[in-house]
Amino acid sequence: MASIDEMLGVDPDPELTHKAELLLDSDEELLASLVDKRVERGLSQKQLGKRIGVTQATISDFERAGGDPRMSTIRRYALAVDTHIFHFITDFKPIPNGKVTAVIPARLPTNQQVENVTWKAAGRQLRAVRVNG
Fold first, then answer.
1. Closest by alpha carbon to 100, among 15, 20, 26?
2. 122 φ, ψ to 5°?
3. In terms of DSSP bridges, do strands 100-102 and 117-121 run parallel, antiparallel, or are they unpaired?
4. How far is Cα of residue 31 from the mean position of the Cα atoms in its chain?
5. At residue 110, does pLDDT exceed 50?
6. What is the rounded distance in angstroms from the CA atom of residue 27 to the CA atom of residue 33?
7. How confident is the model at residue 4 (pLDDT cuts 50, 70, 90)?
8. Where are the beta strands (DSSP E) in the chain?
9. How many Cα atoms are found within 13 Å in the side-chain-facing hemisphere of 63?
10. Predicted confidence (pLDDT) per residue in 12-71, tens digit
11. CA-CA distance, 63 to 55, in Å (whole number)?
């Protein structure tokens, strides 16, 4: 299996490697959250595949750790499990132990109501509750 540095095409600099790991963690959390939604909705991989016009094997590949699905595939999967995905971009910030972390912005999208948002960052589960309006 390729190293994180090889997968991302970066030099094996410790700080850069740590940042790359945070990015990969975010990707894995997104995919795991989508799979959780499929299971919550009581959909099998085969049923979901029929909804988006692919085989069960394709869904299995999508859900496999280490995959690299296209954004369009992620959107189709989210639509099939009736889930909205929103994105935000943030700077990496240093923390006292010499590592870096991504700072979660205080402002979430204002065009929709967001409640009980849960995500993982740097190995910790974080939770925020926000209701617009």
1. 15
2. 50, 40
3. unpaired
4. 5
5. no
6. 10
7. low
8. 92-94, 100-102, 117-121, 124-128
9. 21
10. 677 777 788 888 888 888 999 999 999 999 999 999 999 999 999 999 999 987 778 899
11. 13
Query: Which of 36, 131, 132, 27 has its CA nearest to residue 87?
Result: 27
Q: Is the pLDDT of residue 102 over 60?
A: no
The Cα–Cα gap between 28 and 82 comes to 19
Q: What is the pLDDT of residue 100?
A: 57
When pLDDT is averaged across residues 120-131 and rounded to a whole number, the result is 46
- Cα distance between residue 75 and residue 31, in whole Å: 11
Domains contained in the chain, CATH given: 4-128 (1.10.260.40)
Helices vs strands, H then E, count in the chain: 5, 4
Sequential DSSP letters for 57-82? HHHHHHHSTT----HHHHHHHHHHTT
Adjacent-strand bridge partners of 119: 126
Give the other-Cβ count within 10 Å of 67's Cβ.
13
Which of 20, 41, 33 shows the shortest CA–CA distance to 99? 20
